[in-house]
Specification:
single chain, mainly alpha, ABC transporter involved in vitamin B12 uptake, BtuC, two-stranded antiparallel sheet, 2 strands, about 70% helix
């Protein structure tokens, strides 16, 4: 037993390694939170599980590359790029929602899943046509180059921006949904869209706005990850799987669940890589399976009648 703990958990005595893995896990959780919160938001209001949400993340990275090229060294181009890339993906999501998804809100869920899966295939080919099959690189801003010391451990300065952005976006979402009239309408739509329509709210327009916001969050995550990884076809597959794991654990439609489950999944992967490298990729799925067995509506989700 002592040998087992020494082999798999002996690294816990290394403060630098523990700090690095925790910081990396928290930074990864912010990307997951942005994607998963948008996915959870769309489902909470429209009741559609959007398989194409990972494609919006991929397009956010591609749009980031395009806007950096177009801005060409403009002061503050990185920050402008983040806004423009998010808005571009929001517009793309809005077009798809108006032209296609709006027509199937009352259709069989299987048909909805097939349509959003068709979007995955379509958007993948569109990305290859527009940007080619080769990866696209987005440079990091010079001000965020290098690293800082956290408890004596060097950590990329850019990843600190990612962590800060995740907290700020989470705070902004809380303010929007719990301190504004629009947020109250969105929360009401999650309970009874028919009653909301009877009270005079333009429900289809509200659904479009929610879908665009959820798409923008995925696009923002893609734009922020672009300076870290290469924007390339297929990058949507890995993130959407992890995002679904997060929303299943946290509960579909719950922002708090998305935030805490993102931290749980990302940190578990980061620490599991050191302790159990052979099975680190499946640890999150084990947690998801346990949640599905004992609380299938998620840790913070609402039980459907």
């Amino acid at each position: 037993m002592l040998e087992f703990f020494a082999t798999h958990f002996g690294w816990l005595t290394d403060v630098s390694l523990v700090t690095l893995q925790l910081a990396s896990g928290i930074a990864s959780a912010m990307f997951l939170f942005l994607v998963a919160s948008g996915l959870s938001l769309i489902f909470g209001v429209s009741r559609i599980i959007n398989f194409a949400h990972g494609s919006f993340y991929m397009f956010g990275a591609y749009f980031a590359h395009t806007w950096v090229q177009l801005l060409g060294g403009t002061p503050g181009e990185f920050w402008v790029m983040l806004i423009l890339a998010s808005l571009s993906v929001a517009l793309l999501g809005g077009v798809l929602e108006v032209l296609f998804l709006r027509r199937i809100y009352h259709a069989d869920p299987i048909f909805q899943l097939l349509l959003t899966f068709a979007f995955v295939l379509l958007l993948s080919d569109v990305a290859k046509i527009l940007w080619g099959a080769e990866g696209k690189v987005v440079p990091r801003p010079e001000a965020l180059a290098g690293s800082v010391s956290i408890l004596g451990t060097p950590f990329p300065r850019y990843m600190l921006l990612v962590v800060a952005a995740g907290f700020l976006v989470g705070l902004a979402l809380w303010v929007v949904f719990y301190r504004t009239r629009w947020g109250r309408l969105v929360r009401a739509a999650r309970h009874s869209r028919d009653m909301l329509g009877a009270l005079g709210t333009n429900v289809p327009r509200l659904f479009t706005q929610v879908f665009m916001l959820g798409s923008a969050l995925a696009g923002l995550a893609g734009a922020m990850v672009a300076p870290i990884v290469t924007a390339a076809p297929g990058m949507d597959a890995s993130i959407i799987i992890d995002a679904f794991v997060v929303v299943v654990i946290g509960g579909l439609g719950s922002f708090l669940g998305a935030a805490l489950a993102s931290l749980l999944v990302a940190v578990l992967k980061a620490l599991g890589t050191v302790s159990f490298p052979a099975i680190s990729m499946v640890l999150a799925y084990v947690v998801m399976a346990v949640v599905l067995i004992f609380r299938p509506w998620g840790l913070f989700g609402r039980r459907e009648e």
